[in-house]
């Protein structure tokens, strides 16, 4: 019985409330002309009581109604980065933390934020802790980043622990987290080592319960990696490499890297 009543109320509740309020107003208008109606409904306070009851019921129903989810899920990392840029386009973001692998996938977001004066802490994988292909890729991306006019707004460190979590916290506005997974081809680990660009990215606002849960997880991992004893300043790391010193990735992977195909941007 209770379930049937709840369904009836959910389906017809708004219509009934509007009808009752309309009848109350009609009674009020008629009561101003007919003394009997005025004494029975207006002067007795019955109309006010009915209206307050209806408004209270509508308020409770609204609170119980399921709210729209504050969480968005982008199917790919590139979609997520574009969504974040659009979301914060008119917001003042003065600081950001980013946990990446090579950092290539976050270039557009870093560029957009840095041009707006945002100060960024960026963590990337240490090039000495990966294979030849990713070493070249990470170092090349860092060299390009440090050559930008806004590079003084970006502090970069290289972590050696295994990569698992990707994340971006933008001021007090947005948190986005995703995953790094092994890049496996034909049953073996490919030269790319890690997959990130095709993995989903969860995006939500920091002011929501969901955002606070994600921030707690992300910020804990980020701070631990940032302060780890073997995490190193990226400028110091890059200074140890020159073109001659960079290990070369032989074969198909290197050829595709220089051709600029999307396939070689898995992280």
Detailed description of the structure:
- With 267 residues, the protein is of the alpha+beta class.
- The protein folds into 2 domains: 2-64; 71-264, Endonuclease Chain A (Endonuclease, Chain A), CATH 3.30.870.
- It is built from 9 helices and 10 strands.
- The strands form 2 sheets. Strands 1-9-6-5-2-3-4-10 form an 8-stranded mixed beta sheet, sandwiched between helices.
- α1 packs across α2, α1 packs antiparallel against α3 and α4 runs parallel beside α5 (107-115).
List the helices and strands and how they pair.
Layout: H1 2-31, H2 35-42, H3 46-64, E1 71-74, H4 77-87, E2 95-99, H5 107-115, E3 119-125, H6 132-146, E4 154-159, E5 165-170, E6 174-179, E7 181-185, E8 188-195, E9 201-205, H7 209-227, E10 232-233, H8 234-239, H9 252-259
Parallel strand pairs: 2-3, 3-4
Antiparallel strand pairs: 1-9, 2-5, 4-10, 5-6, 6-9, 7-8
Low-confidence stretches: 249-265
Largest sheet: 8 strands, mixed
CATH fold assignment of the largest domain: Endonuclease, Chain A
The ordered H/E elements are HHHEHEHEHEEEEEEHEHH
The helix tally amounts to 9
CATH homologous superfamily of the largest domain - what is it?
Endonuclease Chain A
Rg over alpha carbons: 29 Å
Side-by-side strand order of the widest sheet:
1-9-6-5-2-3-4-10
Q: Which architecture of the largest domain would the CATH scheme give at its second level?
A: 2-Layer Sandwich
Helix percent reads 40-55%
Number of strands: 10
What gap, in angstroms, lies between the N and C termini? 55 Å
Average pLDDT, all residues: 79
């Amino acid at each position: 019985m209770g379930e049937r009543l709840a369904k009836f109320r959910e389906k017809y509740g708004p219509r009934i409330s509007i009808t009752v309020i309309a009848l109350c107003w009609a009674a009020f208008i008629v009561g101003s002309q007919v003394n009997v109606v005025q004494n029975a409904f207006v002067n007795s306070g019955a109309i006010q009581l009915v209206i307050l009851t209806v408004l209270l019921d509508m308020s409770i129903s609204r609170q119980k109604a399921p709210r729209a989810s504050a969480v968005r899920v982008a199917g790919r990392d590139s979609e997520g980065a574009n969504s974040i840029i659009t979301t914060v386009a008119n917001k003042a973001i003065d600081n950001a933390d980013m946990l990446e692998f090579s950092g290539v996938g976050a270039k557009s977001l870093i560029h957009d934020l840095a041009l707006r004066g945002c100060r960024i802490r960026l963590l990337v994988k240490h090039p000495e802790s990966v294979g030849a292909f990713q070493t070249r890729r990470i170092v090349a991306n860092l060299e390009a980043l440090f050559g930008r006019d806004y590079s003084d707004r970006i502090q970069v460190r290289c972590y050696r622990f295994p990569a698992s979590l990707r994340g971006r916290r933008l001021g007090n506005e947005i948190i986005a987290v995703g995953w790094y997974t092994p890049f496996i081809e034909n049953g073996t680990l490919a030269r790319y080592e890690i997959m990130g660009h095709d993995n989903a990215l969860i995006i939500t606002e920091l002011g929501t319960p969901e955002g606070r849960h994600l921030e707690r997880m992300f910020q804990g991992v980020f701070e631990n990696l940032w302060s780890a004893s073997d995490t190193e300043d990226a400028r110091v790391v890059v200074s140890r490499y020159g073109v001659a010193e960079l290990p070369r990735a032989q074969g198909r992977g290197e050829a595709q890297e220089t051709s600029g195909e999307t396939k070689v941007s898995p992280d």
